[in-house]
Amino acid sequence: MQNDDKCKDCPGCDKKETRWREDFPVQWDKDEYVTRREMVKFLSLGSLLIAGANFIAASVPHLQHGGRFPKLKIASADQIPAGGSQLFRYPTDEDPCILIRDRAGELVAYSQVCTHLSCAVIHRAEENTLFCPCHHGYFTVEEGRPTAGPPTRPLPRIKLEQNGNDIFAVGVEV
Ligand code: FES
Fold this sequence. Notes:
binds FE2/S2 (inorganic) cluster
């Protein structure tokens, strides 16, 4: 607050300095005027910036790898029976994933990070489902598609290749 506690906007005015002026001490002749057009422009630009930031955040895994992912051996095929699963990390040590042999004998792999709020999903072989314990989200084993609970997006799928008994992760499909 200024020493004399007087508003500086209007000469001769006796009003005290308003509280918000103390917090935002920018002085501008027309700062009381914000037109509807300016507000709409501000909201539109703000929305565009947020959308752009979200797009960049979603693209970071791809950008980090330049769109190319390493080929990494993650398991041996004979170690995973039908209904079995194994955890691994791909494409980096920061990215937990799960490899599952479904009931039909096909191998599938997903990011273990739930698409709701990022808890780790677990395989429930007896229910043939991927389950997120945080808010009871469920995903199909065959496609990683959400079937119940708050998640609305499928789990990112890890692309696999098999060479003899060796199973390799070769990419991520978001
Ligand atoms: S974090 Fe998985 S359901 Fe909420």
